[in-house]
Write a structure and sequence with these properties.
Strands 1, 12, 13, 15, 16 and 17 form a six-stranded mixed beta sheet that branches. The chain is α+β, with helices and mostly antiparallel strands and 457 residues long. The protein folds into three domains: 204 residues, Zn-dependent exopeptidases (Aminopeptidase, 3-Layer(aba) Sandwich), CATH 3.40.630; 95 residues, Sandwich (Immunoglobulin-like); 98 residues, Immunoglobulin-like. A hairpin with a 7-residue loop joins strand 20 and strand 21. It is built from nine helices and 25 strands. Helices cover 25% and strands 32% of the residues. The structure holds zinc ion. The site of zinc ion has 5 residues, from loops.
Length: 457
C-alpha cells in the first residue's frame, strides 16, 4: 500500500478541497457533523430560451462591388464601406443584449455573392437576416430611410415577422431624424414564382431567406445621392454608429430582448457527504434568475439541471447524482423580456469528483475464523479501499485496494481467531493518474471479539 499512500498524499497536495487522506477523514467523520443551509430551488414559471436568437447581419456589397458611390464636399461616400461600418456597430450593440448571437456575412472589404450570403445565414441557423444598405437615386433630392420586407406569398408567417421587425427598425431610424419613406415589399418583376405558384419577392436575399425558412429584410438607411443625408447621417463614425445602434434597438425591441452585461461566476461546487453537490455563484446584477448545468466530464453537452428564480439567488443543491464519476458544473444568468428568459454567457466550469459510499457493508465470520466483508457496489466506482484496525485505540489503516468497481466482497486472511478486527470501506474513482476517494463507512454489523473467538473454536 506504500505506493497508494504516496499517490494519495500527492493528490491531496494538488487538490485539497476534493480529496481526503484516509486518516484525516476517519477522525473527522466521527467528531464533525457538517451542516449548511440548503438554498431554495424552484422551477421557473417563465419560458427559458436555451438557444440564442441568431441574427445574421449582411453588410451590402464589398470588394469589387462598391455599391452606390458619391462625393460631397470633397468626401467620398461609398456604400460598401458605410454598410460594413453600420453592420459592425449594429453587431456590437446587439451583443449587449442577453440571448442573442450575431454573425456578419462579411467582416472585411470582400465580395460575397447574394446566394452565398443567404447560404451562410442558413448555415449559422439564422432566425433573421438583415441586409444593410444605403440608397441612391438620380434625383439628388430624394432622401430618407425605408426597409423592405418579404411579401405575403408562400410563407405567410415569415412575411408577418419580417414586416414587424422592418417596422420596428424603421421607427428607430425615423427617430434619428431620417425622412420616413415607410416599409415596403417588392414583388418579382420578371414573373419568378414560389413553389406555391405565387409571385416571388423581387430581392434575391429576401426571396432566398424565405425559401430557406427565415425572414430576410433590407434596410436602406439613407441616400448617398443626397448631400443632406450624407452630411447628417453618414459623415462620421459617430453618425454611422447611431444608425447601427438604431438597427440593433429595432431588432431588440421586436424580440423583446433585454440588455444584460452582467454575468455570474461559479465560486463553488462541493461534493457533500450525503451525495449531493452544493453549488454557489456570484450575483449577476439586474438578472432575473439562473440556470444550473451539469455534464459528465467526457460528455460534450451540458444538461440543464434546474432553474433558480430570483437574481439574488446564489446557490443550489444538486441531489440528483446517482453514479460516481467526474462531473462538471456551470451556471448562467437569465433576464426576462416579453415573458421569455434569455441567457447571458455561461460561467466558468468547476469539476466535482462524486464518489458515493458503499451501502450494506456487512461482516461475517467464516468457519476458518477469517472475516468476510460484503457490500452493495457503487455505480460508476473504479474500486474500493478497505481499512482495518485491530484495537479501538488505533487509527484505521488501509489494508486492501480492490481495483474493480463491481467487487462486492473481500475476505481478510489476516484477521483470525483471537483478533479484534474493525473495518471501514470507501469507493474511489480514477481520473487519469489521480484517485478520488469517497467517504469511509464502518461495517454495519461489527462482530465482537468474543464472537470471533467462539466462532473459531
Ligand atoms: Zn446597396
Amino acid at each position: 500500500m506504500r505506493m497508494k499512500r504516496e499517490k494519495r498524499d500527492k493528490r491531496n497536495k494538488r487538490n485539497k478541497r476534493t480529496n481526503r487522506i484516509v486518516s484525516t477523514i476517519l477522525v473527522l467523520a466521527m467528531i464533525v457533523s457538517v451542516s449548511y443551509v440548503k438554498p431554495v430551488s424552484v422551477q421557473a414559471a417563465v419560458a427559458l430560451q436555451e438557444d440564442p436568437i441568431v441574427i445574421v447581419l449582411d453588410p451590402g456589397h464589398g470588394g469589387a462591388d462598391g455599391g452606390a458611390t458619391r462625393t460631397w464636399g470633397g468626401k467620398v461616400y461609398k456604400e460598401k464601406t458605410l454598410n460594413l461600418a453600420i453592420a459592425q456597430y449594429c453587431k456590437k450593440e446587439l451583443e449587449t443584449y442577453a440571448g442573442v448571437k450575431v454573425y456578419l456575412t462579411r467582416s472585411y472589404d470582400t465580395y460575397v455573392s447574394l446566394e452565398g450570403r443567404v447560404a451562410y445565414a442558413k448555415k449559422k441557423g439564422a432566425n433573421l437576416f438583415v441586409s444593410l444598405h444605403n440608397n441612391a437615386d438620380l434625383k439628388t433630392s430624394r432622401r430618407g430611410a425605408c426597409v423592405f420586407y418579404p411579401n405575403a406569398n408562400y410563407k405567410k408567417a415569415i412575411s408577418k415577422s419580417g414586416k414587424a421587425v422592418a417596422a420596428s427598425i424603421q421607427e428607430q431610424l425615423v427617430d434619428l431624424g431620417l425622412k420616413n419613406n415607410g416599409i415596403a415589399y417588392r414583388n418579382s418583376e420578371n414573373g419568378t414564382r414560389y413553389p406555391d405558384k405565387k409571385l416571388a419577392d423581387y430581392y434575391n436575399v429576401i426571396r432566398g431567406s424565405k425559401q430557406k425558412g427565415f425572414p430576410g429584410i433590407i434596410v436602406e438607411h439613407a441616400f448617398v445621392s443626397n448631400p443632406t443625408d450624407c452630411k447628417t447621417f453618414l459623415r462620421s463614425q459617430a453618425k454611422l454608429k447611431k444608425l447601427g445602434v438604431a438597427d440593433a434597438t429595432g431588432i431588440a425591441e421586436y424580440y423583446g430582448l433585454k440588455k444584460a452585461n452582467a454575468t455570474t461566476t461559479l465560486t463553488g461546487a462541493e461534493y457533500q457527504q450525503d451525495g449531493s453537490v452544493l453549488l454557489t455563484w456570484t450575483v449577476a446584477e439586474g438578472m432575473d434568475g439562473y440556470s444550473v448545468y451539469r455534464k459528465k466530464k467526457n460528455e460534450s453537452t451540458y444538461q440543464r439541471l434546474a432553474c433558480i428564480e430570483g437574481g439574488e439567488s446564489t446557490g443550489y443543491v444538486d441531489t440528483s447524482l446517482t453514479e460516481a464519476g467526474e462531473y462538471e458544473y456551470c451556471v448562467r444568468a437569465y433576464i426576462v423580456g416579453n415573458g421569455v428568459g434569455r441567457y447571458t454567457a455561461y460561467s466558468n466550469t468547476m469539476p466535482v469528483y462524486a464518489v458515493m459510499a458503499p451501502e450494506q457493508f456487512a461482516q461475517v465470520i467464516l468457519e476458518d475464523g477469517t472475516a468476510k466483508l460484503t457490500w452493495t457496489p457503487v455505480a460508476g466506482a473504479s474500486g474500493y479501499i478497505i481499512a482495518r484496525r485491530n484495537n479501538p485505540e488505533e487509527s484505521f489503516v488501509a489494508v486492501a485496494e480492490l481495483a474493480d468497481g463491481g467487487t462486492v466482497e473481500w475476505i481478510d486472511l489476516e484477521c483470525t481467531a483471537g483478533s479484534t478486527c474493525e473495518y471501514q470501506i470507501c469507493a474511489y474513482i480514477k481520473s487519469g493518474e489521480m484517485i478520488y476517494t469517497g467517504d469511509y463507512v464502518g461495517v454495519q454489523n461489527p462482530v465482537a471479539e468474543e464472537a470471533i473467538s467462539q466462532n473459531s473454536l
